[in-house]
Every structure is written in structure tokens, then in C-alpha cells.
Write a structure and sequence with these properties.
Elements (H helix, E strand, L loop, with lengths): L1 H31 L2 E8 L13 E11 L9 H15 L9 E13 L3 H6 L3 E11 L5 E11 L7 H18 L10 H7 L7
Parallel strand pairs: 2-3
Antiparallel strand pairs: 1-5, 3-4, 4-5
């Protein structure tokens, strides 16, 4: 009986600790919002120090097709386009002029909402897109990357947060190949902090 009582107490304490950890994680998640990660497949430049996107001052979202069997929510793209404009502003990429236009297009490869396992162990939701950066004048594809919008806390779940994460990933990728500016986020440090990949 004593062994059984001790086991029950241990289980109860374990669940209590897990619960406290989850609350702390989700409180922190509420401040962070959706996470963005990018992984270049065809880098914009083979030179890790080069900033070839500096000649572009207009950033236009092109077509993003759905390549996941129609399972992507219709609300994703409107939320993504809004979040994209917001991220451009935060990175200081909206008050530029005199340069060329860069088109950002892609296709949604995967969309995942939290499932039963996620509810038990901590929800993970993500949207994965194969993204191309294209010169508007020539049609040349300058770079290709997988970009991921991810949420890992219940307070951050939902279409809007994943759209925010996807926008962060794409604009962070662009910024990593853009010349330094006075008003901008440090995309490399942000991306590394969330487990992303810098171009090399």
C-alpha cells in the first residue's frame, strides 16, 4: 500500500510540474507569436557575405498555390498577406524606392493543426511553403527556400499565428541577403534563435 501511495503521489507531482511548465511556456509564447524558419535550397548567392537583394526596393507577393490536397484553410492566405506587409514594415523594407521589384511566390506543401498527441505533449502547428524569389523584369528565379511558420503553444495556435510565422520566415530570408540599414531587425540572430538556417 505504501508503495502504491508513493507511486500515485509521484505521478501527481509529475503532472503538476508538467502543468506549471506548460503554463510558463505558453505565457512566453504569447509574447513571441508565431515562429519563422527558413532553409535555403538554392541560395540567392554562393557568397555568404553578398547582399544581392539590395537592388530591390519593391516586394510583391505573387501567387501561392495549394499543393496539399485542398486541406489548407482558406483563411491562411489573407492572413499571410497582411502579416507579410507588417513584417516588411518591421524590417524597414517599406520606405525604399528607385530599385527593382522582387516577386515572392510559392506553394503550400504542408499544413498541420494540433492533434491529440499535440494536446497531450504540447501543441505543435506549422505551415510549410516552397518559396521562390523572382526578378519581376526578367522572370529569373534568384533563390529557393523552404519557409515554415510554426506555433508551439496553445495561446499561439490558429491560422493567423502560423501565417505570421510564415511571413517572418520569408521576410527574414530576404533581409539576410539585404544590405544593412539603420532601422531593421537583425534577421540572422532571430532566425538562429528559433532554429532556422542562414544562407551559405
Amino acid at each position: 500500500m505504501k508503495c502504491m501511495a508513493a507511486s500515485i503521489l509521484l505521478v501527481a507531482v509529475s503532472f503538476q510540474l508538467i502543468g506549471c511548465s506548460t503554463v510558463a511556456k505558453e505565457t512566453f509564447g504569447a509574447f513571441r507569436g508565431g515562429k519563422g524558419v527558413y532553409a535555403p535550397i538554392h541560395p540567392v548567392s554562393d557568397d555568404p557575405q553578398a547582399n544581392p537583394l539590395g537592388e530591390y526596393t519593391e516586394f510583391e507577393l505573387g501567387i501561392f498555390t495549394e499543393d496539399f490536397g485542398g486541406k489548407t484553410p482558406s483563411a491562411l492566405m489573407p492572413a499571410f498577406r497582411k502579416a507579410f506587409d507588417e513584417q516588411l514594415m518591421q524590417y524597414g523594407l517599406t520606405d525604399l524606392s528607385g530599385g527593382k521589384t522582387l516577386i515572392i511566390r510559392g506553394r503550400i506543401l504542408h499544413y498541420e493543426s494540433e492533434d491529440v498527441l499535440g494536446i497531450a505533449l504540447g501543441p505543435v502547428e506549422e505551415v510549410v511553403a516552397r518559396v521562390e524569389l523572382v526578378d519581376a523584369q526578367t522572370g529569373q528565379v534568384l533563390g529557393v527556400a523552404n519557409c515554415i511558420g510554426r506555433t508551439t503553444a496553445r495561446v499561439n495556435s490558429g491560422v493567423g499565428k502560423k501565417a505570421e510565422g510564415l511571413a517572418k520566415a520569408i521576410v527574414g530570408w530576404i533581409d539576410s541577403r539585404y544590405p544593412p540599414r539603420e532601422t531593421k531587425k537583425t534577421s540572422s540572430s532571430i532566425n538562429q534563435a528559433i532554429g532556422g538556417s542562414s544562407e551559405s
